């Protein structure tokens, strides 16, 4: 069992998802045979838990093969739990910090995904870790976006680079890079306009910011996090695919898991898009953004 405050928060945040996932757990009894009927029911329950077609097929195939190879004994539950955990493990956990100069983290996502509050929570977490953080308010298209981010930055005590609404987002990014280098910031978080993945002109603007940052700071952006609304479930995959094509996303911040039964989409996103979940939002408080830990996540699903 995974213990501690963080696990408790994750478990509470995943209550709705766990209630759906209980249908999977109800299949596991000490005398249940791994036969065709069991595998069919397992497949159905994983679909209901929003695990997705590809991930579900992989789990069912592994259970079937594991039984044939005598890897699966009486404890089918333990075997399935291990398969789910292995699906989510990724060597690039957290933020990759560069050795010299500021580490640039670019944030993308659609309006309403929780992007602004996720930036504030991430900045707050990094500050508490002892990092000197600068935020670039490049979401200059949406009314009040810069003001909202300014309020958050003032509240948590981190600096922000901004211009008036309607300004060139790439120009804001350029100025932020210059300040980050000149004043020795450890982390530069670059906000971008919340846009639909189908809005071609705005996606081009995202590419432009990506290029400008790379010219100012070699290797930047070092991380590109896509903020996805956990309540969207499988629908988030299309967003992840398009954003990744445009700006080479390196990871996902999955928000609003405390208000959805679709947390199983974590498996689908990882299998379909190949992007690791870096952080998860499990509440509305400033400290409710947690680094994603496969052990804690899967354990939370399996504990009633």
Q: Which CATH first-tier class of the largest domain would you pick?
A: Alpha Beta
Q: Report how far apart the termini are.
A: 12 Å
Shape category? elongated
Taking strands numbered 1, 2, ... along the chain, how are they ordered across the largest sheet?
3-2-4-1-5-6-7-8
If you had to describe this structure to a student in words, what would you say it looks like?
- Its main location: membrane.
- Residues 276-289 form the SRP54-type proteins GTP-binding domain.
- With 304 residues, the chain is of the alpha/beta class.
- Helices cover 49% and strands 12% of the residues.
- It folds into two domains: 5-88, Four Helix Bundle (Hemerythrin (Met), subunit A), CATH 1.20.120; 103-293, Rossmann fold (3-Layer(aba) Sandwich), CATH 3.40.50.300.
- It has helices spanning 5-13, 15-25, 36-48, 53-68, 76-88, 115-128, 145-156, 169-182, 200-216, 236-247, 265-273, 294-302; strands at residues 103-109, 133-136, 159-161, 187-190, 223-229, 251-255, 277-281, 289-291.
- The chain has an eight-stranded mixed β-sheet, sandwiched between helices.
- It is elongated.
- The mean pLDDT is 87.
């Amino acid at each position: 069992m995974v213990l501690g405050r963080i696990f408790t928060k994750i478990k509470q945040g995943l209550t709705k998802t766990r209630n759906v996932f209980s249908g999977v757990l109800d299949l596991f009894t000490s005398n249940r045979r791994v036969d065709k009927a069991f595998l069919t029911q397992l497949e159905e329950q994983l679909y209901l838990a929003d695990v997705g077609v590809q991930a579900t097929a992989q789990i069912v195939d592994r259970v079937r093969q594991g039984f044939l190879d005598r890897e699966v004994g009486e404890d089918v539950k333990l075997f399935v739990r291990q398969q789910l955990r292995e699906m989510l493990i990724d060597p690039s956990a957290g933020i990759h910090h560069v050795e010299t100069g500021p580490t640039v983290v670019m944030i993308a996502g659609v309006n309403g995904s929780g992007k602004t509050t996720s930036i504030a929570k991430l900045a707050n977490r990094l500050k508490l870790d002892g990092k000197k953080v600068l935020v670039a308010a490049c979401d200059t298209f949406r009314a009040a976006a810069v003001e909202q981010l300014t309020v958050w930055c003032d509240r948590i005590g981190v600096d922000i680079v901004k211009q008036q609404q309607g300004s060139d987002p790439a120009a804001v990014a350029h100025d932020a890079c210059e300040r980050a280098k000149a004043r020795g910031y450890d982390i530069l978080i670059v906000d971008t306009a919340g846009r639909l993945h189908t809005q071609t002109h705005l996606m081009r603007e995202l590419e432009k910011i990506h290029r400008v940052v790379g010219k100012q700071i070699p290797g930047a952006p070092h991380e590109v996090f896509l903020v996805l609304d956990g309540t969207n479930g499988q629908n988030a995959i299309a967003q992840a695919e398009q954003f990744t094509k445009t700006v080479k996303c390196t990871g996902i911040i999955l928000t609003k898991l405390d208000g959805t039964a679709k947390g199983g989409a974590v498996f689908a996103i990882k299998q379909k898009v190949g992007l690791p979940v870096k952080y998860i939002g499990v509440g509305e408080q400033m400290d409710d953004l947690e680094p994603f830990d496969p052990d804690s996540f899967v354990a939370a699903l399996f504990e009633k």
